[in-house]
Recover the amino acids of this structure.
């Protein structure tokens, strides 16, 4: 689930902070000066949830949470991404309002000490009293009470999520093991080779001269490739001279299944030891030098090696299912209007 406690009333960086701070997902975020006029909110209503009005400021704030790199785009969201982000943000602010209203209906209370601690932690974000007062005036009508109510709303939403989503999304070790045992095909490892490459590429429909030049570049690098004594040495050489897409990853292709390799390359690799390097190989207009990192025989991943990642994956899946079901249930008795 999205972490609720993130501050940024004053910036678009939205960096996660301690959970006792004001949730940006329920607070008002000022718009950066560089944001285009079209992106600047005016307080226009975008939705009503049982009569409660949500505005374009709420919507924009949530869009920035979904796309925290807006400042790298002049304070704006790329046009091709904007419709999807906007819809996701709209659904999220509606869901959060439904959670808040449900918390009120259940008469959930926030202890005064917890509320004051959250307010104190939020106050620490500001380097001076003047900066704090400026924020208070611009965002909360110079009212500590308005700020306190916004914090209380955030804490109520967090309480709802903890009680109705987080607590019901835990996956036990027995459930993780059961999934592993019931899905053996997923954990099969095909016979494969972990390799690094340095490649030189001639243009499509290359002339004989262009092919000759690509081969010459490969032959010129071969001695250095053969002399590389480690993954790092070969990888740094790949970063420097290789012309394929893998050069940015030190030439590392990770584990490539045997079935996806040319038979002649497989035969070469089967005869090699880890760390050895082939001569220059030609595949159409590409001249490649291959270093074997290791041979990976077919087998099955051990449960001990995957249980941590698998538990995280299953809990995320369960969390999304529980949250979706809660959202659906809350909407059944709510009047939601998208304006």
């Amino acid at each position: 689930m999205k972490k609720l406690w993130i501050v940024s009333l004053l910036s678009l960086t939205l960096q996660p902070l301690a959970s006792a701070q004001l949730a940006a997902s329920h607070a008002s975020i000022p718009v950066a000066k560089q944001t285009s006029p079209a992106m600047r909110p005016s307080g226009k209503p975008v939705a009503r949830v049982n009569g409660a009005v949500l505005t374009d400021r709420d919507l924009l704030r949530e869009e920035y949470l979904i796309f925290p790199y807006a400042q790298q785009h002049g304070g704006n969201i790329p046009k091709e991404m904007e419709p999807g982000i906007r819809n996701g943000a709209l659904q999220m602010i509606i869901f959060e309002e439904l959670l808040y209203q449900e918390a009120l209906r259940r008469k959930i209370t926030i202890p005064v000490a917890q509320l004051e601690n959250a307010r104190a932690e939020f106050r620490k974000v500001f380097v001076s009293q003047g900066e704090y007062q400026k924020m208070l005036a611009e965002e909360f009508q110079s009212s500590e009470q308005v700020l306190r109510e916004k914090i209380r709303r955030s804490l109520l939403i967090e309480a709802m999520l903890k009680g109705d989503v987080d607590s019901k999304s835990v996956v036990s070790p027995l459930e993780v093991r059961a999934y592993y045992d019931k899905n053996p095909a997923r954990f099969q490892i095909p016979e494969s080779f972990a390799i690094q490459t340095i490649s030189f590429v001639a243009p499509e429909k290359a002339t004989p001269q262009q092919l000759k030049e690509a081969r010459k570049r490969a032959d010129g690098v071969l001695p250095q490739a053969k002399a590389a004594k480690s993954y790092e040495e070969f990888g740094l050489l790949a970063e420097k001279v290789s012309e394929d897409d893998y050069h940015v990853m030190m030439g590392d292709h990770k584990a490539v299944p045997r079935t996806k390799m040319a038979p002649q390359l497989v035969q070469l690799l089967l005869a090699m030891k880890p760390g050895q390097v082939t001569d220059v190989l030609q595949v159409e207009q590409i001249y490649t030098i291959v270093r074997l990192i290791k041979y990976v025989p077919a087998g099955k991943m051990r449960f001990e090696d995957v249980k941590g990642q698998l538990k995280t994956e299953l809990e995320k899946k369960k969390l999304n299912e529980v949250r979706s079901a809660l959202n659906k249930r809350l909407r059944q008795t709510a009047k939601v209007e998208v304006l």
The CA atoms of residues 49 and 97 lie 7 Å apart. The chain is about 45% helix and 15% strand.
